[in-house]
Amino acid sequence: MLGMSGGVDSSAAALLLQKAGYEVQGVTLRLKPAKPACGAAGDSQLSDIEDARRVCQKLGMEHRVLDLTEQFEQAVIAPFAALYEAGRTPNPCVLCNPAIKFGAMLDYAEQMNFDYVATGHYARIEQTPQGRFLLKKSPAAKDQSYVLYSLSQHQLSHTLLPDGIYSKPEIRALAEQAGLPVAHKKDSQEICFVDDNDYGGFLERYTGRKARPGNFLDAAGAVIGRHRGVTHYTVGQRKGLGVSFGKPMYVTAIDAEHNTVTLGGEQDRYAAALTAGELNFIPFDTLESKAKVQVKVRYSATPAEAMLVPLPGGRVHVEFEKPQKSVAPGQAAVFYDGDIVLGGGTILTKE
Predict the structure, then answer these.
(1) Which CATH superfamily hosts domain 270-350?
(2) Catalytic member of 38, 56, 93, 96
(3) Is 38 annotated as catalytic?
(4) Sites in the chain below the pLDDT cut of 50
């Protein structure tokens, strides 16, 4: 059962699976509630479903739509909104993958007697004597292993990622050669349920609560201006602050309890360490001792050399060899040993 978004990646995955000899059925997940909070997102969803159906028709595959709007709202949208209002910066794909795409969709596939689910994610899965390992995409451009770190051994053992050894241009070329109608469809750069990346507007519509203006603070805690509400800002943000300071200023901390947003200069963007919790490890259950690893602190970050130190209460301390910029509580910190994804967790604090 192939999860098909209506985009070129999952459509090319269908081609690759068929060439490998698999019997493939496409399923498009209906995720976005038809609510005003989601703006035009619900309309774009109908277009994506139609694109997936057209691809399946072209390839002689059955296509079905699986309505998971209720599960998606409970597992992704509601937690995203709550965390954002609490001053965190959650990654909704990290919430969605274990609960929805490799959770509810896999459950459904197993009920329907499918052997595997597949997606168009750019990552690799390999069988080893220790179990299934998740690896970075090779070549590394557009690697998506970061958002898959929380998958379990059971999920990995029933998952296929056929795009993992291909580059994006190669995927588009495969789709074009097969005459797929989505070969040149643009990639979405937005969160699927937030139009125009307007997080603040989405949260106001979804929760029914207006953002409360408050104070911008400098690193010493002095008031240096007024902000529009904490939900309009993320750690590392420079543009769209709404106030001019005569020099580049960045969001370095958000305190939802006191309704303050702290700003700093270039030197204030960096953190030497962080603490992460809500951990998931793939090759082993728990971290028993210190380990030298590489860590990504956000999807687009370059893996940085660091030391993982186990802490009580299912947490780890991450000590970087070189300070990292824009470390945001609520984001995922993902741990690598070369190409192998060791696991990851949610950033709780930074230092």
Answers:
(1) Translation factors (2.40.30.10)
(2) 96
(3) no
(4) none
